[in-house]
Amino acid sequence: MPGRGLQTTRLRAAERRSDFGRLAYRRSTLLVIAIAALLVAACGGDGVEREDFDLTASDGFVFPAEVTLSDDSVHGVWVLLGHQFTGNRRDWDSLRDDFLDRDLTVMTWDFRCHGEAPCETETKGESVEQIWREWMASLDYAVAQGATTIYAAGASMGGTSLIQVAADRPEIDALAIVSSPNRFKGLDALANYERVTIPKIFVVGRADNFAPVFSRRYHEQATGPSRLVMLETELHGTTLVQDKDWGPIARGHVVEFFDDPATMVTLASIDLGPIPGGPGDDSADTEQSQTAQAQTSAPPQDVDDDSQATTSEPAPGAVPNTDVVDVILRTEDGLDLAANLRPGGPVWILLGHQNGGERGGWGELDGQLHADGYSVLAWDFRGHGDSPAGDLSDLDLDWAAAIDHAEDSGAMAIYAVGASMGGTSALTVAGSDARIDGVVTISAPAQFVGFDGGAAVPEVSVPMLFMAGTGDRSAFSGLELFRGRAEQAGLSHDAITYDSSLHGNALVRDSVFGAQVHDEILAWLPSPDGTPD
Q1: Which of 42-56, 146-160, 445-459, 481-495 has the lowest mean pLDDT?
Q2: Does residue 300 have a cis peptide bond before it, meaning omega lies within 30 degrees of 0?
């Protein structure tokens, strides 16, 4: 019947509309739930609010920061967290959450050239000297927002810069320092350390390269209450804080310390004794020490710059391990250079070989320098020995990697000794890198693949020693040019010639002239302990 068919059709249409309505309702409900979830996530979830914003440092640098707090956060109690070199503010998430569980307000940020912060220098390393400004801006913000109690923690370079800042910011009530060097790329935590009188805790892995030496020095030289906590691990900085096993332990010490700094700092320190591979440890595992040394130059750790090391009253700046150590020097353009380190005192001698040579071509010079107490670092330039291929016009990057390693390992003074191309490039680098304290050139030509030693000499403000055989025509001409330019500029220099045609490393290794070269270099260098002769 037509009527019944029409009725059936209408019923089916109504059913479809009803199904569509139920589907639309379910979809709208899911949409509401999704939006709510996003809003909760934006606030951090579980009653946690997070505010992201930009701060401006005193030099006009703009960097990203965030403040996180719970609904129950105690008014006025803030914790500021500064990350390590190559890290970012996300590295603190686990410790941030621990503090949120304590109802504290937590502030983190990205230092310049890190994380989401812009970079106004060519490299991260060049920016480090200014990161104290981010600490200052963050402290100013916390105070402006009503912070009445401020605790601050820093990992590696974040801790070094924090101590430097704390000397001038009385608003900080307590410090937690994780794996931090005493000095790093222009930062100097010891310069005014005596003014940092607030409670301090230092947390460090006992096998973390040189970090335990630095932490122990902080603790022993502290003015005011201090506690040292040494853990049986090689983990460094925020890597230690984040680790699934050691992280809860390290974070627990920091969190409990900030619960009551005045009381916690009175607890006995946890000092596990002699540092593996360091002074006073006769059972150092050579392979472990070599691995640790290699990691010193490899990211992401910043096992950082310092002026001295200490365990059982060694010479200031002494580097752990007295054996020859294989290390890797990471260049700015990503090459891993093979190198040998003979750790000694705080005065470092860097040996750059000639074209076609390699790090083992110094005869007895490196061993003699080490026997006299110097730390000696020799490496294979790119395209030589065990190092990967590379353009020789970039030898300055190889020198920079060697200087970085010496600086990061505690050198108080750095002297560059270069043979032939190593000498010409060393002069050029010394004209622009203020970390070099003196230059020795052996058979260096005036120019080499883009390096102009003659043009560089007037820019070198440190003492120079030029050496060459009179029969080595290009090298002798280079010496004469260098000496003339230095005299015209009134610069400190010495020139020594030999009645020989031997060149570069061959002159150094020679059974007759080699001993003379050794003696002249040793007589010219400062005392290996860094004190005036």
Answers
A1: 42-56
A2: yes
* Sign of the dihedral through C-alpha 406, 464, 533, 193: negative
Q: DSSP readout, 389-451?
A: P--GGGHHHHHHHHHHHHHHTT-SEEEEEEETHHHHHHHHHHTT-TT--EEEEES--SEETTE
Alpha carbon 414 to its chain's center: 17
Q: Does residue 204 contact residue 231 with C-beta atoms inside 8 Å? A: yes
Neighbours of 429 (CB within 10 A): 27
Cβ atoms < 10 Å from Cβ of 278? 26
3-state class (DSSP) for residue 9: helix
Tell me if 48-264 shares its fold with 324-524.
yes
Handedness of CA 290, 292, 298, 303 (dihedral sign): negative
pLDDT class for 273, splitting at 50, 70, 90? low
Q: What is the DSSP letter of 21?
A: H
Q: How far is CA 20 from the centre of its chain?
A: 62
Coil, helix or strand for 45?
strand
Total count of residues recorded for the chain: 533
Window from 200-214, 300-314, 478-492 with minimum mean pLDDT:
300-314
Q: Strands 413-419 and 375-379: what pairing? A: unpaired
Helix axes 93-101, 246-259, angle to 10 degrees: 40
| Segment among 32-41, 141-150, 461-470, 496-505 with least mean pLDDT | 32-41
Mapping DSSP to helix (H, G, I), strand (E, B) and coil, where does residue 124 land? helix
Strand order in the sheet with 48-56: 48-56, 62-70, 105-109, 77-82, 149-155, 172-178, 200-205, 226-231
- In the beta sheet, which residues pair with residue 328? 338
Question: Is a pLDDT exceeding 70 seen at residue 307?
Answer: no
Q: What does the pLDDT read at residue 6?
A: 31
Place of tokens 């970090």: 211
In degrees and rounded to multiples of 5, residue 206 shows phi and psi of -65, -30
In this predicted structure, what is the pLDDT of residue 520?
A: 95
Alpha carbon 382 to its chain's center? 23
Reduce the secondary structure of 471-526 to three states and give it as a string.
CCHHHHHHHHHHHHHHHHHCCCEEEEEECCCCCCHHHHHCCCHHHHHHHHHHHHCC
Q: State whether residue 30 is helix, strand or coil.
A: helix
Q: Identify the H or E element spanning 338.
A: strand 336-342
Pairwise CA distance, residues 465 & 519, whole Å: 13
Rounded distance between C-alpha atoms, residue 188 and residue 524, angstroms: 29
For domain 324-524, give the fold.
Rossmann fold (3.40.50)
Residue 182 and residue 526: Cα distance in Å, rounded?
A: 23
Rounded Cα–Cα distance for residues 400 and 123 (Å): 12
Is the domain spanning 48-264 CATH 1.25.40.10? The answer is no
Q: What is the mean pLDDT of residues 443-460?
A: 94
Rounded CA separation 459/452 (Å): 12
Per domain, the residue ranges of the chain are 48-264, 324-524
